[in-house]
Design a protein that fits this description.
Layout lengths: L1 E4 L3 E6 L2 E5 L4 E11 H4 L1 E10 L12 E8 L3 H14 L7 H18 L17 E4 L2 E2 L3 E5 L6 H14 L9 E2 L4 E5 L4 H15 L8 E4 L4 H14 L4 E5 L1 H5 L6 H13 L3 E6 L17 H5 L2 E7 L9 E11 L9 E9 L5 E8 L6 H6 L2 H12 L5 H8 L3 H10 L4 E5 L8 E5 H9 L11
Parallel strand pairs: 9-14, 9-15, 11-12, 11-13, 13-14
Antiparallel strand pairs: 1-2, 2-3, 3-4, 4-5, 5-6, 7-8, 7-10, 15-16, 16-17, 17-18, 19-20
């Protein structure tokens, strides 16, 4: 963002960085603000003071004057810097006390302003498609994908980065994509590894430079690096940021509530769509797996998918069947059935990745995925899929649960399921149906037929 103050003083901002060009040819760049009540009586910032090359064309690269940390609200700190500048750099037309005070005031206003206040209902309500990748990533929100190690979540995140940057996805993938410039923040692998994956995807999907996104390897906690990242977001007009992975980016333990709350606040300040990749909790008896560590991950994310690998799909050793199960949604319904993608991975003749191409598949073909829905969700999905009442044994075989487990779940969820007598068999054989299916079966019992194919 660029603005003009008093006609000739130019102000440019990138995230928390503010660059001020004075008409006398002085350039002050303030960044990395922080509160330091003890040392500086308030906020401080790093300041770089240089000469504007356009104002001093006869100088031969001798533009640097000073780099320091200054208390932007501290009179003593500003006076110390003014004395040093006056002693060491006599610039024609420049009164250092006034110029420094002017620069610190502009920098302080920029640092303090935060988000502007707005009156609600002054713009139309949003309707229609609200996804960056429909149905997997909500536009403008914090999205979270979590999975066990070795599932392929980073490969999937790379694929998501490519198709968003390109603004298109293969027809077979069944995804609808909105274009946005993309930044991949990598805390787990290397540029070489991501580069190899990108080349393989581009070869398999016939994509060109339009799919090349921005990449940055993370070497320190994201919260400490956030201001610089925000400047890159502004400079490159980034609309989609992938954080791989959330735990590594935090620089702390998975259960550090305060650290993760700070991290999520930081992600909100960027004003872009975010996809965070995370690991899962250890399996515990009677408890489903979720994002590892603090509950604030679940609370802060607006759209959460569990990534599962279907180990019972035998397409070949070079295929990776992945399914995404919708676990949380704000402003939308949970998506069912699970979304499924198959990566075909071909090796290069000289070794390494050759090409990767992508197609969709039906997650309902995998008992691994149906079982991962949980017993209640699994029963509902099977009954919707086959669209008829089914026996306890039939359902149990489809969701990898025991008939007893199915029976207990049906009994507990009386508002969802009904139990019917099987009109085609003698004895005490029972069928389970969704409420609507049960009503239909009771009205037209002759329509209940033996186990059909889909």
């Amino acid at each position: 963002m660029t603005s003009t103050l008093q006609k000739q003083t130019t102000i440019q901002t990138y995230g928390d960085l503010v660059r001020i060009v004075f008409p006398e040819g002085i350039v002050m760049t303030f960044e990395n603000f922080r509160e330091e009540a003890r040392r500086f009586e308030g906020a401080s910032a790093e300041v770089l003071i240089t000469l504007d090359p356009d104002a001093f064309p006869t100088l031969d690269n001798a533009f640097h004057l000073m780099r320091s940390r200054i208390g932007v609200m501290s009179a003593s700190s500003k006076a110390t810097h003014e004395r040093w500048l006056s002693k060491n750099h006599d610039v024609p037309g420049v009164t250092w006390a006034l110029t420094l005070e002017h620069g610190c005031e502009i920098a302080t206003q920029h640092y303090r302003r935060g988000e502007a206040m707005a009156k609600v209902a002054q713009k139309p309500a949003r309707h229609g498609n609200r996804f960056l990748i429909d149905p997997l990533i909500q536009f403008g929100e914090l999205n979270l994908w979590y999975a066990e190690g070795g599932t392929g979540k980073s490969l999937l995140a790379t694929y998501a980065s490519l198709i968003v940057q390109a603004g298109m996805a293969p027809t077979d993938s069944r995804l609808k994509v909105r274009q946005a410039n993309t930044l991949y923040l990598d805390y787990e692998t290397t540029l070489d590894e991501v580069n190899d994956r990108v080349h393989a995807f581009k070869e398999g999907m016939a994509l060109g430079e339009e799919a090349d996104f921005q990449y940055r390897r993370g070497t320190r906690p994201l919260a400490e690096d956030a201001r610089y990242i925000k400047r890159m977001i502004d400079e490159f007009e980034i609309g989609f940021v992938v954080v791989d992975s959330l735990g590594m980016a935090s620089g702390t333990g998975a259960s550090d509530d305060e650290a993760f709350n700070r991290l999520f606040v930081t992600l909100r300040t960027w004003g872009v769509t975010v996809l965070a990749i995370d690991h899962v909790t250890k399996s515990e008896e009677g408890r489903e797996k979720g994002p590892i560590g603090t509950v604030y991950k679940w609370n802060n994310a607006r759209n959460i998918w569990e990534v599962k690998r279907a180990t019972d799909m035998f397409g070949g050793p070079d295929e990776l069947h992945i399914s995404l199960i919708h676990r949380k949604a704000n402003n939308q319904r949970l998506s069912r059935p699970p979304f499924a993608i198959n990566f075909h991975i071909e090796e290069h003749p000289d070794g390494g990745l050759g090409q990767i191409w992508v197609e969709g598949w039906d997650a309902r073909d995998s008992s691994d995925i149906i079982a991962a829905l949980g017993t209640g969700e699994g029963i509902k999905q099977v009954l919707k899929d086959y669209d008829r009442p089914m026996s306890y044994d039939e359902i149990a075989a489809k969701i990898n649960k025991s008939p007893g487990n199915v029976r207990k779940t049906v009994t507990r969820m009386k508002n969802v399921f009904v139990v019917l007598d099987d009109p085609n068999k003698k004895g005490n054989t029972k069928l389970v149906a969704l409420a609507a299916q049960g009503d239909l079966a009771q009205q037209e019992p002759s329509n209940v037929t033996p186990f059909p194919s889909r």
